[in-house]
Protein 1
Amino acid sequence: MDEGTELSLTISQIVQRLKGSHLHSQIERQAKECLHQPEIKLESLKEDVRNFLKTSGWERKLQNAVYRELHIQLPPSHPAAPPEHLKEPLAYMRKAQASWEKRILKSLNSMCTELGVPLARMRPAVEQKELTNKWNEMGTDEPDLSRFRPVYAPKDFLEVLIGLRNPNYDCSDEISSRSHWGLIQVPLNVRDIPQMREAYSELSLTTGQLGIDDNTHIHPDLFESEYVQIGKKVVLEQDTAAAQQYSRQGCPTGLRADLWALILNSTNQPQDVMHYEQLKAGVIQHDLLVDNLIYKDVKLTASNDDYYFVFEDYLYQVLLCFSRDTAVLEHFSYNSATPPKSYIQGKVGVEECAVVYPPNGVIPFHGFSMYVAPLCFLYNEPSKLYTVFREMYIRYFFRLHSISSSPSGIVSLCLQFERLLQTHLPQLFYHLRQIEAQPLRIAFKWMVRAFSGYLSTDQLLLLWDRILGYNSLEIVAVLAAAVFAFRAENLMEVTSLAAAEAVLADLSTLKVMPLIQIFLFATAI
Amino acid sequence: MAGKVKWVTDIEKSVLINNFEKRGWIQVTDTEDWNFYWMSIQTIRNVFSVDTGYRLSDDQMVNHFPNHYELTRKDLMIKNIKRYRKELEKEGSPLAEKDENGKYIYLDFVPVTFMLPADYNLFVEEFRKSPSSTWIMKPCGKAQGKGIFLINKLSQIKKWSRDSRTSTFVAASSGKEAYVISLYIDNPLLIGGKKFDLRLYVLVTTYRPLKCYMYKLGFCRFCTVKYTPSTSELDNMFVHLTNVAIQKHGDDYNHVHGGKWTVSNLRLYLESTRGKEVTSRLFDQIHWIMVQSLKAVAPVMNNDKHCFECYGYDIIIDDKLKPWLIEVNASPSLTSSTANDRILKYNLINDTLNIVIPNGDIPDCRWNRSPPREALGNYQVLYDEEQALSENAERDLRSRSGQSLGSKGTKGGAGPRPTAATWK
């Protein structure tokens, strides 16, 4: 397929998707209304309306919307490709994901039966009223959750990834310097350092960098002051593409909330607020089994976290609404996962009686709430917080717990991490492998959460700046490898997995950008 | 220097003892010769009392000023601040400027407060101006939230005064059970829907000239129960008081974080949600409050050369990001509620000792009180009167010779003049 055909295919797809959107009707109304203005002439109607939309900022909004579509959903490589290829082109990955889903759902259903709790039930009026009253303080509630357990934890998921095999690939070779020493045994294409140096050129040693060049010992005039000024301009211009480019060198704390919302095109319009209120009403009306899982997860993670305990109530307000948001289902067209289905009581197996459960199709696992927690530092309005989180989820976070071949997918990140270690720290890798402390066993939990809950919040936000800036989670794997490199000396001395874990137990003092920069640009290759 | 520091303490806290032992100092009893005594405020009273007191020699240091209560007793602090404001006003100082409502523009940093029973009539007059407001009653000489209650009706205070006339007001003549009543900050800044106050540490090495240091690692103390300003909750003390001593009795108390959030978290949150400028202004104002409160008591403080003091400042921020000084503690708690708390307090004592006992040598109370910057640790100079005077003189000289001053960059928080911008 030549470039021209591909482009026109992409364009027609985006036009298709934007048609009927709220933005579409808004622009249409604006175009109609501007006809009454004196500067719109009949003889140059098309031109004048276009000009009007440009100067009034609607063209920019359209650009941002197009930009979002391009980021979220890449068009299929071939027009004849079936939709499942958009989800995941490799059959063995699709199969692995499907059987993993079956396992989760089975575990959820058996918990349901075991505890005699329905998947969903209507709340009696009294209970609805009670919940409405304590919406802002759900954390003070102490329901008995001892019988509930997380459906799965990252380490269960890791075992599945370790077991992944490509049936067309023989990896039974004797171990040698050329074979892969790690746990991930599927052949995927991941980038090496020279390729990454090209892709991440904005992180190079000679480029100014927030997280490095804003250190208190460096005079702000050298980099920071001017960089912040540029940031203010980017926010003022409301240009998604510019914001994303800017974020590669880091977002200033005072501008981050605006810049991220701009990059994600989460504008918090009145309809977003309304949507959130509807979801809230849904939470109040119905009690779901997954609510208990969310409750339990927040209590086990964020509530005990030095940084995030303050936001416990916000986490419920976001996550309970999220579980009921059917708009999330759209992302399954490009997610290798498929939303789980349940059947109305007594109709098991009857396809017409199948419903997606939970309504958003996402079963939370242990640590899920940590995807939301850092965002609470940026947005103190629940509806805004919600909108940004949902967008982050359907762009990035879903890839961290579904099996796919995507370069941002967890499988690629694991492989990337192991390759980087094997190539650049072979002695360390070999040593850890010998003492049965496979590096991935330690790093996996960091990567599944994109480091949330492991780094100090300021550092975590600097890392996520780059995820947004490069529209990729690859940097997470780079950081994981860089952490090992940074602690290599201590790790060479340990003789057990427990000892290695102890060396890497506290990451809260790490400065991420120097680590990444040194690893990518000052490692001998 | 020859010899090891001989230390005594009547506060058996590991964060103290570990610090002394780390320096190789020798523990003695208070009847032996000692060089360094970390004592409670009960003991300091005896050390400096007319009857039992004794002369300290040049190689002895203690951790309180003799009449620290001028700052750390709620009623006296208020009295001193009120006096300080009046004096500045009399001098015609620009600091005492008032707005159109008669409120001090720069010196309105404590909630309206009255002494009870002494100022009862003044209080009633003020209460009637805004009858819907809530007031908080605190005994003057107690700490950790003891004896505190809220009122929002005049009848409540009348009842209290009737009930206490027989018991407490008798003691009031001896100054022990006097109360202060302050306007309750009913629009506190909420984070995650929760109310909090700030605990910050300030070290004073001398009052005249004033030299004080601010500890960078303070923390926010969160209420574990949601804040609702409704009056039905007035009786639920957990909602209103953030003292850990009180919060620990709440069911939700978490032993991992203890409801404590670092000041760096607060700064990150405020900068992210409200912007850098207003956040910097808030922290500048907090520094300003501390310096002004110390200046207010400096003239009456017995500036004994054997003394230094590390104060715990309690500050509440309202939803307009204005900080309010609630009270100052002479003996900030050295009990550690969590692992992080322990590290913080250990470092606080460590950094304090590094400043007041240079090099860990036997103290000489005539020391110059100008520690080198590398000895400051997590402290930063809050105010140095000597340096400020010489800088002012220099500035006068320069402006007379016609040189321009030029801005020195805007990076707040670092370097020796973190707050210069606010009190020029």
Protein 2
Amino acid sequence: MADRPGGLCSHIAEQRDLVMESYKIVISFLISPESRENLEKRVQRFKCYTCESVGARCRLHACLQCCYVGCRLYNHSQEHHEESNHHVAISLSHGVLYCYLCAEYVHDYEFDIIAIKARQRLADFLDLNEFVRSVPLWNPKYGELELLSLQPKRMRVDSKTPIGLRGLYNLGNTCFMNCIIQCLTHTPFLREYFLSQQHKCIRSSPADCLVCEMCSIFQEFYSGKIFPHVPTRLLYLVWTHAQHLAGYEQQDAHEFFMATLNLVHKHASGTDIPYSGGCNCIIDVIFTGSLQSDVVCQSCHGVSTTIEPFWDISLDLGQQTAGDSRKPRSLDRKKLTDCLENFTRAEHLGSAAKIKCSKCNSYQESTKQLTFKKLPLVVSFHLKRFEHSKLLHKKVSTPIAFPQQLDLSPYMAKPEEQEEADPTSTSHDPSFSRPHTYSLFGVVIHQGTLQTGHYTAYIRQSPNGWFKCDDCEIKTATIEEVLNCEAYLLFYHKKYIEYAVE
Amino acid sequence: MNQELSNRIRQKLVATGEEERLKELLKTRLLSSGWRDELSAVAREYLKAKGVQHVDVEELQNVLLVEARKSIPDTVKKELLVEIRDFVMQHEGIL
């Protein structure tokens, strides 16, 4: 055993300087070569000198007291130690020191630093920083070690840990808020943002900041506590900042969701304008997408394009008219993709709504078509189940089938250059063929009527673990159960995240 | 595949630095897939059960190797295979 954890053993410490010299050489030639020349040399040296075997499974070790490389697979490194009495070696797979006298691997801070620096030079040389820097391992610093020693409780999280699940007390018709909190706390990107404490409060008092409150809600949810949380402070903040939601009446969950995004955006960025361009607040980074609206003049076919930002997509469910029921297709469940097709269909604006065309300079009938210009990291769909027209207010209970994985590429705006080019020629370009695939992670359901009802949510806690959240109660759910429910709000996150283009 | 061809591909991978790139790619994928954490949990359990004083690296390595190989996600294996195939295609001279 090493004399002290994380330090050199007495055998290596005795000849520390010598060992360090050879360590540097082995690192720069065999472990992290920093030039083409050294890479070439490595081809020759990187094998067991006795049996010539190569590859990770041989577990090669280089002797640091002479020029020898031996495998552990056939015990040649051990034989070398016995023959030569050299006892300090280095693992060529990991760059860790090994002492034959202790029969242990030995770590030392200064040696580690040499290896890390060499690795960094190799990354610069081979242009690998994309990998080396993208997932930095956390090495706790002195202050952090101190904090860790003050907090001895450890929690290991694996796929079976019910972390992040917490019931919420109903504070008097506040299920509209509870179901949205459940969905927000299980939004992967929000969770990473809040749990890594990236929020820096810019308001005069953190007690008045909805972002700070969100942050504390995330900490409550992921604290491992198993009794329900009481979201009074959040409710109070929403009441004071969004007066239309104040009071003990039933509210619309969608309205609450939008109000929350708006307030968090406002408190995080300090600006009142929703989705203001160039705002980098967490809400805009995650939820803001843009729609392209093309108005085509029916007379000259001139197109006028505008881009509008959005935070969510409200979809019509279509009419349940008598005409529909005669069609054989109405036996099938209507699909989310049908609603999206409808949403992105070119719509004739009619003769009553003539628009001045900027090309032919006259008022003409035109068509309008919406398509997605930029998709956000999280897309939320609002199925318009509550119909309010002049004549009637009613709830639409049409069942809508929605998929677990949703491909949004059919509803994307066509890239401009494609209009003139041969449509087949661009289809090979990988940037167009990359699918805009989204995965379902949250569903909000409304049970009951327009006047009175109850909101619950299904949330995805782990890759295949679904749970039903009904205020205080959390129950496991099956994916079939989720996909067959009468959804009101649907939350999808982007499945494949591209690296930021700099 | 014969040993000699396998050696030639390996040497080319090392000499071009591609091996290092694949290593880093693999590390990143295994880390982000949770493989590393899962495996270190298995190791911890084993050490706890047997007592840290009674286990040496050799033994731990033998215990973990099976589990480690088995639990590599298929997507990761596939990606690496494609990368190596592409590399061999680009260096037709190896074959």
